[in-house]
Design a protein that fits this description.
Oligomer: single chain
Protein name: Cro/Cl family transcriptional regulator
Pfam family, one: HTH_26
Radius of gyration: 12 Å
GO molecular function: DNA binding
Strand order of the largest sheet: 1-2
InterPro entries: Cro/C1-type_HTH, Lambda_DNA-bd_dom_sf
Order of helices and strands: EHHHHHE
CATH architecture: Orthogonal Bundle
Distance between the termini: 9 Å
Helix content: 40-55%
Length: 72
């Protein structure tokens, strides 16, 4: 996948557990886990905005693009 989710890195930097973030933003721990692992096909901007607000970061802190990892 060309987009890597770096949510686990931001959680570690903020010393926050996934469970705490899921509660703060109002999604299930299972859905947050799927997002963290990159096993989702998309994310709502509303959810992304809530994560950024809770972690005090920018979307670019959570998502990374790598041109050389495009599958096809």
């Amino acid at each position: 996948m060309a987009i890597t989710v770096r949510l686990d890195v931001m959680l570690a930097k903020r010393k926050m557990k996934s469970k705490e973030l899921a509660t703060l933003i109002g999604i299930s721990e299972q859905n947050l886990s799927l997002l963290k692992s990159g096993k989702v096909r998309g994310v709502r901007f509303e959810t992304l905005a809530a994560i950024c607000a809770a972690l005090e970061c920018q979307p670019g802190d959570l998502l990374e693009y790598s041109a050389d990892t495009i599958e096809g």
